[in-house]
Amino acid sequence: MESSAEATQRIARISAHLLPPNFQVLSFHLFSIMEGSSILRRADCRAKGGAPGFKVAILGAAGGIGQPLAMLMKMNPLVSVLHLYDVVNAPGVTADISHMDTGAVVRGFLGQPQLENALTGMDLVIIPAGVPRKPGMTRDDLFNINAGIVRTLCEGIAKCCPKAIVNLISNPVNSTVPIAAEVFKKAGMYDPKRLLGVTTLDVVRANTFVAEVLGLDPRQVDVPVVGGHAGVTILPLLSQVKPPCKSWTGSATLSMAYAAVKFADACLRGLRGDAGVVECAFVASEVTELPFFATKVRLGRNGAEEVYQLGPLNEYERIGLEKAKKELEASIQKGVSFIRK
Ligand SMILES: NC(=O)C1=CN([C@@H]2O[C@H](COP(=O)(O)OP(=O)(O)OC[C@H]3O[C@@H](n4cnc5c(N)ncnc54)[C@H](O)[C@@H]3O)[C@@H](O)[C@H]2O)C=CC1
Ligand SMILES: O=C([O-])CC(=O)C(=O)O
């Protein structure tokens, strides 16, 4: 099989035939630099021609969600710099993604000693780091491992990019968001608008399933999903589905990466100043008596600039809401106590 070095030389030879003579020298020069250099050098080469845009870091970038998420963010025209951090395999994933001929410059960061460099200067930090569920586990079973991981990563954010918008994917989201909030409070930089638990997968799923039942294009369906992101706390408001209607395993990685990108893109459009960017997210909230709750939020230059009320609920949804709040309260408290203990 052709090695990557051989492939690079072959592409260089072909390009040289296709390019005008003055570009041929440049082409060989560039390819020899690329082949002999480190991953970081490759990224720096491209940085000179990099597109304007936002700086985004993915923490846990080598995982089941992290890899497709990194690929999709590399394709996002709003991203100029993409930092890929993980405790394993970050260089390999970075090398692979960096060969995509899109505008964003990609840089890889491996292990705790490189966390601060990964985070410095970032506008948006997306966190899919941590262990996923295995069959038979609840999301809360992940708490013991993921709570510590999220704490460490958020301490890094507090130090290196305190103004960044944070999209938290690691489960259990109902507890990891309160953990992040407590870490940020301790560091004296907590801004509730900038911390968002990603519940987009619930919306994406609800849109897809409802569209299937109604025979519609899922892109035309909008199901608000409120509450939180676990069991009974996930409350789709089917009475508020748009367009209005009369009737009605392992852990996700690819659809979650899609959902994470949909949400991150909305955050970046908000940062850019676009009007009317609205998504569901698990945020600090006064919509119920609980300190955090997932509802529709309007995303702007400062993050979640407006948190929307629930709107009218039917009887079924009101009962669901009470169940959701009970479980959510315990999960939030568990996260808060983890840091305050
Ligand atoms: N919010 C949501 O809707 C969803 C959340 N999830 C959650 O996302 C998380 C990740 O899931 P997968 O990607 O499938 O898991 P995975 O195990 O495939 O990937 C996790 C990655 O995190 C890395 N990691 C572990 N400790 C780290 C640390 N201290 N710093 C940086 N990276 C670290 C691992 O090396 C691995 O590459 C899980 O907690 C899962 O439950 C999954 C699906 C949906
Ligand atoms: O179920 C899991 O463990 C992963 C997750 O949050 C989801 O797929 O909604």
Automatic annotation (TrEMBL):
GO MF terms on file? L-malate dehydrogenase (NAD+) activity
Looking at the UniProt entry, the stretches that span the membrane are none
Concerning InterPro entries, the annotation shows: L-lactate/malate_DH, Lactate/malate_DH_C, Lactate/malate_DH_N, Lactate_DH/Glyco_Ohase_4_C, Malate_DH_AS, Malate_DH_type1, NAD(P)-bd_dom_sf
The catalytic activity of this protein is classed by the Enzyme Commission as 1.1.1.37
Query: Which amino acid positions bind substrate, per UniProt?
Result: 133, 139, 171, 205
Provide the Lactate/malate dehydrogenase C-terminal domain boundaries. Answer: 199-243, 246-338
Question: What UniProt keywords apply to this chain's record, in alphabetical order?
Answer: NAD, Oxidoreductase, Tricarboxylic acid cycle
What's an example GO BP annotation here?
tricarboxylic acid cycle
* Top EC category: oxidoreductase
**What CDD domains is this protein classified in?**
MDH_glyoxysomal_mitochondrial
Which residues does the UniProt record annotate as the domain Lactate/malate dehydrogenase N-terminal?
A: 55-197
A GO CC term?
A: chloroplast
What chemistry does it catalyse, as a reaction equation?
Answer: (S)-malate + NAD(+) = oxaloacetate + NADH + H(+)
Where is the catalytic site?
229 (proton acceptor)
Q: Which annotated residues bind NAD(+)?
A: 60-66, 86, 146, 169-171, 256
Stretches assigned to coiled coil: none
- UniProt subunit comment: Homodimer.
Similarity remark = Belongs to the LDH/MDH superfamily. MDH type 1 family.
Query: What is the protein named?
Result: Malate dehydrogenase
Q: Which organism is it from?
A: Hevea brasiliensis
